[in-house]
Write a structure and sequence with these properties.
This protein is an alpha/beta fold. It has 13 helices and 23 strands. It has helices spanning 14-25, 41-45, 47-65, 79-90, 93-103, 155-158, 175-186, 206-219, 309-323, 371-374, 404-416, 421-425, 438-441, and strands spanning 2-10, 30-34, 107-110, 113-117, 120-123, 126-135, 139-141, 167-171, 190-194, 222-224, 231-235, 238-242, 248-251, 253-256, 260-262, 276-277, 280-281, 294-296, 338-340, 345-350, 360-366, 382-388, 394-401. The strands form 6 sheets. Strands 1, 2, 3, 4, 5, 6 and 18 form a 7-stranded mixed beta sheet that branches. A 5-stranded antiparallel beta sheet has the order 19-20-23-22-21, sandwiched between helices. Strands 10-9-8-14 form a 4-stranded parallel beta sheet. Helix 3 packs antiparallel against helix 4. The radius of gyration is 23 Å and the shape is globular.
């Protein structure tokens, strides 16, 4: 039997939840399909549980920095207790999210969705027909295609580890590797990070990345650059990692942290006339796919913008506005802040250039001895800002310190609202706080 709706949404992550509930509130008949955990990656096995674990890293770092400055012993991370605390956030999510959708009038289906044709799909024997579809099926951890790849664990596994082993290895040099390295190191594990080239976190400022690597190395994290792992072998003492040269490393657990891949392969998109590439579904300036009745949002998109939770929400709000006739304008992304919740934290937004660029002015500030960082005895605080030479306005910023997650949002507002340095100087901020340093940074 065919069930008909105005809109069918595939995926119940932040973008799927937002579009489904908002369109239902607009009077649309809406169905939503979820294959796995209701609520998607972020609250179940992504940003939220990771940040709970990061809280322990932050607390331990703060105490370590004040050793001999009034505090005498650093706390030991009790991993099972920390994971139990994390579960208080994640365990209720699927039931709560599904219940929230159903209470908003959305019909929920659990199972794998696959298109039959351009306006019909199948899920668990049900056929759903709709005028429009919204693809918000997200992404999943990618796995290197090498010998022994079945031994790789993923970010999903890390976030549910019952015990922290003595040694872990992270293959890949992106956000996930740096964040998990800091977490596992704080929890007492010997951590190895293996990167196939010498440029980890390639989208971030090189100098700040190098400084972050040195800070993690000082804590005991071991980086192996220009190593291209070709084999993972199960041994009597754990796992052996080798390349095609003379590299060999033994570890208790090995995680593949080489990024994520869009869930395009499961939907039979060819039946619906939807084009995609290895990065995800191709869309136009209105987030419509090659089939104009089918929209795509979130991490399943092929796009240049970062695949982050707030970006997913932004795209969901846009699609709802476009589908309900509230806008006909193309989507216009603001400057997007990106964060690495490592130890210390690294953040960046907007334009980043080197000093050779004639259109911009780059300033690098060593704020390590500034009061707000010295009072917590931070080992490093580096801030970079980029100003447009013609207008003098802030267009980009990056920072490496324990206040980076706070500072980057201030920089975001200054950039988006085109606040001049003189306008900023007229504000009075609570002192001493990272915000009160802003006029000195942007002057």
């Amino acid at each position: 039997m065919v069930k008909e709706f105005d809109v069918v949404v595939i995926g119940s992550g932040v973008s799927g939840m937002e579009t489904a509930s908002s369109l239902a509130a607009e009077g649309k008949s809406v169905a939503i399909i979820e294959e796995s955990l209701w609520g998607g990656t972020c609250p179940n096995r992504g940003c939220d549980p990771k940040k709970v674990l990061v809280s322990a890293v932050e607390a331990r770092d703060h105490v370590n920095q004040l050793q001999g400055k009034g505090l005498n012993s650093a706390p030991k991370v009790n991993w099972p207790e920390l994971m139990a605390f994390k579960e208080t956030f994640t365990s209720p999510v699927p039931k709560q999210m599904k219940s929230s959708l159903e209470s908003s009038g959305v019909k929920a289906f659990t199972g794998k969705a696959a298109f039959i044709d351009e306006n019909l799909l199948e899920v668990n024997g049900d056929e759903l027909k709709a005028d429009h579809f919204i693809l918000a099926a997200g992404a999943r951890p990618s796995i290197l295609d090498i010998e022994g790849k079945e031994h790789f664990l993923t970010s999903d596994d890390f976030l549910s580890l019952p015990e922290m082993p003595e040694t872990i290895t992270l293959v890949g040099g992106g956000y996930i590797a740096f964040e998990f390295a800091a977490i596992a190191n704080a929890a007492g594990s010997r951590v190895h990070v293996i990167q196939h080239n010498d440029r980890p976190l390639k989208d971030f400022d090189q100098e700040l990345v190098d400084q972050l690597v040195k800070q993690l190395e000082a804590k005991g994290v071991k980086f192996h650059f220009n190593v291209d792992i070709s084999k993972v072998e199960n041994t009597s003492i754990g796992y052996a990692l080798t390349d095609d040269s003379d590299f060999e490393l033994n570890t208790d657990l090995v995680f593949c942290t080489t990024g994520r891949m869009p869930n395009t392969d499961r939907l039979k998109l060819e039946n619906a006339g939807v084009e995609y590439d290895k990065k995800g579904i191709k869309v136009n300036e209105h987030l419509q796919s090659s089939n104009p009745a089918i929209f795509a949002i979130g991490d399943i998109l092929s796009k240049s913008q970062p695949k982050l939770t707030p970006v997913c929400t932004f795209e969901a709000n846009y699609v709802v506005s476009y589908m309900t006739g509230k806008t006909t304008e193309p989507i216009a992304y603001p400057s997007i802040p990106t964060m690495v919740f490592s130890g210390p934290k690294l953040a960046q937004i907007g334009v980043m250039v080197d000093k050779s660029n004639d259109d911009y002015e780059l300033s690098t500030i060593d704020a390590t001895q500034w009061f707000n960082y010295r009072r917590t005895n931070e080992p490093i605080s580096t801030i970079k800002i980029v100003k447009d030479k013609q207008s003098g306005l802030l267009v980009g910023a990056a920072c490496l310190n324990n206040a980076a997650d706070e500072l980057i949002n201030y920089f975001s507002q200054l950039i988006e609202q085109k606040v001049s340095a003189s306008e900023l100087a007229s504000h009075i901020f609570a002192y001493p706080t990272p915000a009160s340093d802003l006029p000195s940074i942007y002057s």
